[in-house]
# Entry
Amino acid sequence: PLTAKINDKNHLEIGGCDVVDLVKQYGSPLYILDEKTLRTCAIQYRDAFKEYYPGESQVIYASKAWSCMAIVSILASEGIGFDVVSGGELFTTTKALEMSGYNGDDIKEKIYLHGNNKSIAELELAIDAGCKIIVDNWLELETLAQLTAKKEQSAKILIRLTPGIECHTHEYIRTGSIDSKFGFDLNQLEAVFTFIKEQNFIECIGLHAHIGSQIFELEPHNDLGGVLADWFKKALDYGLPLTELNVGGGLGIRYTESDDPPSIADWVKTVATAVTKACEERGLALPKLIAEPGRSMVATSCITAYTVGGKKVIPDVRTYISVDGGMSDNPRPITYQSLYQMAIASKMDQEHSETVTVAGKHCESGDILIKDIQLPDTNPNDILVVFATGAYNYSMASNYNRIGRPAAVLVNEGESSLIIRRETYDDLVRQDLLPTRLAQ
Ligand code: LLP
# Structure
């Protein structure tokens, strides 16, 4: 985080709070979210669009990266909208916005519902809330036509297309190439436009595409501008009154020193320039430009703090140190072989003299947070921190081994406040029921 520094005790400090003290107060593992960094990322996105895009724009946060009420409230106060992909994310977002004093119209203007298999209940929730729906496929389009006609209530939609753009990222998080479960193939679009024209309660306001995540190249986003503008023009020719173009998210972040992503400003400049140029070339008025960053909005504002346990030295092979969390609070290393930077928050002055493998506490050998990293010599009860854990950590956390999800605390200018409570043992059995015949 931007506010990280080493204090006079040689401890790591974030948002003016000593990380070792935070763990004493809130326990570990602990997600520590720095409000200043989060706001700075939001402001960088918002201001870059103002600077580089001559038309109207809206940045919406991809909630899947980390949806919780505090983050929604903070981002909303910076003018950010929300991409939600489930009834649960929609509920969290609308509840947080209501509790933060936003009124109904403000709310629906800025929420977009995504998903490749939205349930009828989710679609109804979105129609009733009046938020915009990004339609992914034929079944959904037909269902939506029926639901809106039955309710006699119109819905604003965007059509998600598969742009056929390849980019270099992990195959699980690549979404824009032809072989993708998301979106309409380009050769289906004219039939889609014809279908929408015949519906009375569906208002198609735009097009959407997303090419993947943790992307360092700018070229694919440049190419996307042309593909979207082509289809935007075609939709207008079909008589659909489109006004919005949504270019998705995908900007990568620096997890380790060898990662070299473009800045938020450079990414926005590329996207904004590509769309402006593509529209000008085709004689189109500039649409409202939407982008939906997730990772690059939240990842760098959070660290996870763990308490170190035992050390296992296997001579000439490897030294393991164990921490009190692991794949349940950060499933990214085991899922995507993701790498992270780490430090010992209680020993920031000490040299990184030992090569260790940091193991989680879960019952499987693959639960390793990182292999062979250089750290200071550790003892039990040292506090190990992992950097840049704001995206896809809490949101992908599980209760594997019946371990409760950690707490999250927001820090700013020396103050900390709990934003997510630690799950208790009672929380773990809250949904369990004994069949009546077995209960005493
Ligand atoms: N829009 C759509 C339609 C998406 O599918 C995604 C991410 C985003 C926006 C935000 O992309 P971002 O700015 O965060 O790259 N769990 C994986 C990442 C999955 C991304 C899924 N979609 C990970 O931990 O790396």
The two ends are 52 Å apart (CA to CA). DSSP finds 13 helices and 20 strands in the chain.
